Amino acid sequence: MLSSHTSSLFWFRMDMMKDFIKKGHSVIALGPEPESIWSQKFNEYGIRYKQIYVERNGINPFNDLRTYRELKKFMKKEKPDKVFTYQAKTVVYGSLAAKANGISEVYPLIAGLGSVFRGEGFKNRLVRAIMMTEYRLACHASKNVFFQNNDDKNEFIHNGLVKEDKTVIINGSGVNLEKFKSEPLPDHPTFLFIGRLIRDKGVMEYLEACKQIKLIDPKVRCLLVGPYDSNPSALLPEELQPFIEQGIIEYFGEQSDVRPYLRQCSTYVLPSYHEGTPKTVLEAMAVGRSIITTNAPGCRETVTDGYNGFLVPIKNINCLVEKMKILIVNKVLNEEMAQRNLEIVKEKYDVKLINQSIMRTMEIL
């Protein structure tokens, strides 16, 4: 299993890897972070961890060539029967390295297309053209390609990157309902955002909306959890600091366990510009919280507007504020939405159901 973000493998794919092992398979996890930090953590679950070189956000072709060569050498040595890979760099170079070694059972997951596919400007168009060519080669080298929403799947098909009969839709990464359980709502309205502090996640819209909400009702709490990032659209510490100093935001940094913060909130807010299917939204639903998110690819799959939460237009701070105000004053509506999410997540997003779908496709029986 390959990723360009090791902690994502550990926190988001562990249930899947454990299910692979239960079926009698050996699992090797590959990521860019040091073995000295991660090997023991993976070993505790019977998983080997191997560090590979991946420059997650870079566009240097020599660095990418190094990634491809390392993966090709690794696969030649290990001869894996099946390869599951996600996130752009490892999808592309993992799939091509597998093909170079005659491995046909490659299963990439396209978990959101990111700003490159939907951004503007000459540089963005150039990078998009390169990525589309790489994705086309990767999909050609794959047996099946997983998508988490129809928007992304149709984008790939429309641009000739993948044949429709290769595509498989899954309902996100799922959520572990034994770990994320229903919790009572707090007495006072509290909003929460969890995610990397990058603009594409809608963090600036969240901050500005919280600023307006605090002017209306200073007792409302607005929580923020997540790390700073190396992404070009990342929020800088000096940009966040004024919101902290003015008491608009309670910032808790990166957390390995988000459940204590989900317990504190009454509504989870994710004004993202695009997602695969946002795992933090599924976790909030499993705890029994209403959702405010955007009418954007991946996000819109999780919410029926007005039923279990609200959908707002991308980058529309005023609309976001209006929906937050509704849930502040209408406690009964918030409770009804929260209860509906508990039912939805059990029927649709249980990680056991998602993993069964993946394993059927991969013929892990």
Primary descriptors:
365 residues, glycosyltransferase activity, 12 strands, alpha/beta, 15 helices, globular, 13% strand, 6-stranded parallel sheet, Glyco_trans_1, Rossmann fold, Glyco_trans_4-like_N, Glycosyltransferase, transferase
CATH homolog superfamily of the largest domain: Glycogen Phosphorylase B
Report the strand count: 12
CATH architecture of the largest domain: 3-Layer(aba) Sandwich
Strand content: 5-15%
Mean pLDDT, all residues: 94
Q: Provide a count of the helices.
A: 15
Fraction of helical residues: 40-55%
Q: Give the C-level CATH assignment of the largest domain.
A: Alpha Beta
Major β-sheet annotation = 6 strands, parallel
Question: What's the helix-strand series?
Answer: HHEHEHEHEHHEHEEHEHEHEHEEHHH
Main-sheet strand order equals: 9-8-7-10-11-12
Rg over C-alpha atoms, rounded to the nearest angstrom: 20 Å
Poorly predicted ranges (pLDDT <50, ≥5 residues)? none
Q: Give the N-terminus to C-terminus distance in angstroms.
A: 17 Å
Count of domains: 2
* Class based on secondary structure composition and strand pairing: alpha/beta
Looking at the structure, the CATH topology of the largest domain is Rossmann fold
